[in-house]
Amino acid sequence: MNYRDLLVQLDDSEAARQRFEIALRIARQFGAHLVGLDIAPISDAHTFSAIPGAAGLYAEVIRQGEQRRGALRELFDARCRHAEISGQFLCRDASDRRSIARQARVADLIIAGQTNPNAPETYIHDHIGEQLMLTAGRPVLFLPYTGVFPSVGSRILIAWDGGREATRAVHDALPFISRAQQNIIVTVHGPADEPLGARIPCADIALTLARHDAVVEVLELEGATGEHVGSVLQSCAQGRGCDLIVMGGYGHARWHEAVWGGVTRTLLQSMAVPVLMSN
Q1: Distance of CA 11 to the CA centre of its chain
Q2: Using CA atoms in the order 169, 171, 175, 177, what is the torsion angle rounded to 10 degrees?
Q3: Residues 6 or more apart whose Cβ sits within 8 Å of residue 262
């Protein structure tokens, strides 16, 4: 099982450069086609109408946007040629959410960046990965905005609670899981756990993954009183040298706002290693 179509979120940030290089690496690993998606800021002429000299200012904004986009396209095409992979550069207006979601829905895997609150220049791209996880129906690989990741998917922590989102994430991540040196299936038990039999046990999903030739280990942890499950998972991943966390993305769209479950929110805000999520 392989990923054959990848979509990577592009922008001008330093984090996006590393994200692009990781996307190239994954595309080479799976022999995949790579789509680079640049989301352009909204440039509405009406926004400038009350400003003196608006016509000239608007023309300059458009010119700078086209110049930036052209440079990004040249970089994308050059790196794809150098990596000897099939690539396609696309640009979509930030206001055209339907078109962005439609493009994402035909990808096997979306590669996006964690929102960086300290990088205002990338505000237009903030939360795009989270939005696509809710609207595209495809798995999203989130890459932290800090850190260096020489490998992604060689040692995987699978956050398992037996729920629908978790099983979707596991099966969406099978191309990584079946090739990993080690997969650690982790369940964190707490006082509010569902009764035995309500969800799929770790041993059952471990057996399923073993049939896909995955190297699997099961680890059941007890969450300390007051300790957040998301923090437990991150500590475990770092302690075991994992370079990828696979987990269900618990959330739903409410009007124009995404409402996330506690563990999902914790990982999205404070991830230290790449995280693959499915909703």
Answers
A1: 15
A2: 80
A3: 228, 229, 230
Q: Is 279 helix (H, G, I), strand (E, B) or coil?
A: coil
Q: Does domain 155-278 have CATH number 3.40.50.280?
A: no
**Greatest distance between any 2 Cα atoms in the chain:** 69
Which residue's entry shows tokens 């989102």?
A: 165
Q: Say if strands 244-248 and 275-278 run parallel, antiparallel, or are unpaired.
A: parallel
CATH superfamily of 5-143: HUPs (3.40.50.620)
Q: With a threshold of 0.85, does the pTM exceed it?
A: yes
Q: Residues 217-256: pLDDT tens digits?
A: 999 987 655 557 888 899 999 999 999 999 998 754 543 4
Q: What are phi and psi of 180, to 5 degrees?
A: -70, 150
> Do 155-278 and 5-143 fall under one CATH topology?
yes
Query: How far is Cα 60 from Cα 182, in angstroms, rounded to an integer?
Result: 52
Domain boundaries, the chain: 5-143, 155-278
11 and 122 Cβ atoms separated by less than 8 Å: yes
Average pLDDT, the chain: 84
Distances 76 to 11, 55, 83, 102, 258 between C-alpha atoms, Å: 11, 32, 11, 21, 31
